[in-house]
């Protein structure tokens, strides 16, 4: 919507402010509403300008039918809505039923999403136990979130009521640094805002409020239950493959056939790579090959000097969440090969790299953290086109603690998806 404000001053005493709201639809310019605004009214402190949203006390549009909604900013701010959730109330405690309130009307750039599906990620557990020192209790976990848009802020243009959208690990970024302007919000120079970091509330709730610019439409080629784990796990492995796979037939190894690795195998296979899966457990061989791996090698074989596929590798993605001898992985690389670290073990793990192999082999070690907005959109489209989907086990949200215990014991193959069951609470 475009809002134009005309301010007239007559004899320095009387002011008249006239606001005209217009919208462009199908190439035509149509006047949708005209409203007079009292001279005493001020621009929204949040927006710094008279933008026409409810906070600025002007008529705004709501929903896809573009009907006008007249709202009183003061009245709206006084109203609160209760959110029902499964929250992490104290460090290390089981998740429990938790309620909190939000203003009745979303902010200008916010969206309310009725949550239908959540992925359960190891990062949710790290946050619940404050393993990284960035948790603020209480908070609502969940950063692989899919649901239906049920309310939108006045300035939101990228989605409409009824759209199926998803949210991932990143909630916001500075939008101004070179990284953000390049589409790499995941390495924002000011530090991105995490979905569940420092008290922000994620998707383990009935309706989640989230910034519009970091919500993504789920393509119809993906089922919601399959899309949810892709919003963190999927983009986490897709982004480095997109960045480093630069020719057909590259020899790529995936270390760890788990929640991340089983998706990495599928993406690498779809990109035309010669894929080797490496894992501690030999019983994962058949499954890894079914997912698209051309070769399988046990970690025990690697430590004894066996080279996967009888040849050196161009690229290794270390998706293992446990501590791994990275020197052994580095030895599997060709000259100019790359080792990308994705898994983050707790306890301040350190990468030990033999410098002689690194230098004389001109090898590279790198890290990768989720992905920017462009990566997310590319990943969802790619997954839908190539049939990449997670292997999942589903639980109702109220049974999340059962899922957590099963995950901690390593009994999940390979991602947990939680379904909404608030009507039964």
TrEMBL record:
UniProt keyword annotations, A-Z: Metal-binding, Oxidoreductase, Zinc
Domain Enoyl reductase (ER): 93-418
Entries under Gene3D superfamilies matching the protein: Medium-chain alcohol dehydrogenases, catalytic domain (3.90.180.10), NAD(P)-binding Rossmann-like Domain (3.40.50.720)
CDD domains, per database record: CAD1
GO MF annotation list: oxidoreductase activity, acting on the CH-OH group of donors, NAD or NADP as acceptor; zinc ion binding
Cofactor(s) of this protein: Zn(2+)
Family: Belongs to the zinc-containing alcohol dehydrogenase family.
Name of this chain's protein: Enoyl reductase (ER) domain-containing protein
Lineage: Eukaryota, Viridiplantae, Chlorophyta, core chlorophytes, Chlorophyceae
Cited InterPro entries: ADH-like_C (IPR013149), ADH-like_N (IPR013154), ADH_Zn_CS (IPR002328), CAD-like (IPR047109), ER (IPR020843), GroES-like_sf (IPR011032), NAD(P)-bd_dom_sf (IPR036291)
Entry annotated with the keyword Zinc: yes
Keyword Membrane: no
Protein species of origin: Polytomella parva
């Amino acid at each position: 919507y475009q809002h134009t404000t005309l301010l007239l001053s007559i004899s320095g005493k009387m002011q008249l402010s006239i606001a005209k709201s217009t919208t462009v639809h199908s190439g035509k310019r149509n006047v949708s509403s005209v409203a007079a605004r009292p001279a005493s009214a001020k621009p929204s402190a949040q927006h710094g300008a008279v933008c026409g949203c409810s906070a600025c006390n002007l008529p705004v549009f709501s929903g896809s039918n573009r009907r006008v909604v007249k709202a009183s900013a003061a009245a709206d701010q006084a109203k609160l809505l209760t959110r029902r959730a499964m929250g992490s109330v104290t460090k290390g405690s089981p998740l429990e039923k938790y309620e909190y309130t939000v203003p009745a009307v979303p902010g200008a750039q916010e969206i309310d999403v009725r949550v239908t599906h959540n992925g359960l990620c190891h990062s949710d557990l790290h946050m619940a136990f404050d393993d990284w020192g960035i948790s603020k209790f209480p908070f609502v976990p969940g950063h692989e979130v899919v649901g239906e848009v049920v309310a939108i802020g006045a300035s939101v243009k990228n989605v409409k009521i009824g759209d199926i959208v998803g949210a991932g690990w990143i909630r916001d970024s500075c939008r101004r640094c070179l990284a953000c302007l390049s589409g790499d919000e995941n390495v924002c120079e000011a530090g991105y805002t995490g979905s569940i970091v420092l008290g922000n509330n994620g998707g383990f709730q009935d309706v989640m409020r989230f910034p519009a610019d970091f919500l993504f439409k789920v393509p119809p080629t993906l089922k919601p239950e399959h899309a949810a784990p892709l919003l963190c796990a999927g983009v986490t492995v897709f982004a480095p493959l997109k960045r480093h796979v630069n020719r057909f037939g590259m020899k790529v190894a995936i270390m760890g056939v788990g929640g991340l690795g089983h998706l990495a195998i599928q993406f690498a296979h779809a990109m035309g790579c010669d894929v080797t899966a490496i894992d501690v457990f030999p019983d994962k061989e058949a499954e890894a090959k079914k997912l698209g791996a051309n070769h399988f090698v046990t970690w025990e074989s690697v430590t004894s000097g066996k080279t996967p596929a009888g040849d050196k590798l161009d690229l290794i993605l270390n998706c293992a969440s446990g501590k791994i001898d990275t020197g052994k992985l580095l030895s599997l690389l060709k000259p100019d090969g790359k080792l990308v670290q994705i898994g983050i073990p707790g306890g301040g793990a350190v990468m030990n790299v033999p410098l002689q192999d690194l230098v004389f082999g001109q090898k590279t070690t790198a890290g990768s953290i989720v992905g920017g907005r462009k990566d997310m959109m590319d990943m969802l489209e790619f997954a839908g086109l190539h049939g990449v989907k997670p292997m999942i086990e589903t639980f109702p949200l109220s049974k999340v603690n059962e899922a957590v215990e099963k995950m901690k014991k390593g009994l999940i193959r390979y991602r947990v998806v939680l379904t909404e069951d608030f009507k039964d609470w």
